Amino acid sequence: MIGEHRRIYRLSLALVLAAAALFLFYDRTVSLGLLLGAALYYVYLLVLTKTVTAQLSAAIGNKRPFPAGFAVRVIVLASPLLIAARFPQHFNLFAAFAPLFINHLLTYILYARGERAV
Question: How many Å apart are CA 98 and CA 104, to the nearest integer?
Fold first, then answer.
């Protein structure tokens, strides 16, 4: 399962980098927004891995988990949007938003089975 997710992450990164290279000739703010969103999305994945691992180890050891784990993840996930909104002359807001959901879109496209919920 982890190997499948890594494949999707690599595929989404390749898709974002190709789009950034394509838009480099048309609008530099779109390319920079895509790169900003992709970079901070992968920082989010690292933070997500660390916080979930810490929460699982705390649950196994009957300890109290890190209380601000969710808040840290939300801040990291919102940071490309805040940066793009603060500097619109350098970053396109919609382009910074796109890499956050390309991974989910690729997961749906590649692994949707069409099974009905019972």
Answer: 11
Alpha carbon distance 77, 44 (integer Å): 6
- Identify whether the C-beta of residue 21 lies closer than 8 Å to the C-beta of residue 31: yes
Which of these, 70, 64, 38, lies nearest to 51 by C-alpha position?
A: 70
- 6-45 pLDDT tens trace: 787 888 888 888 888 888 888 889 999 989 999 998 888 8
Instruction: For Cα atoms 78, 82, 84, give the angle at the middle one, nearest 5 degrees.
Output: 120
CA 19 to chain centre: 16
Tell me the C-alpha distance between 27 and 14, whole Å: 19
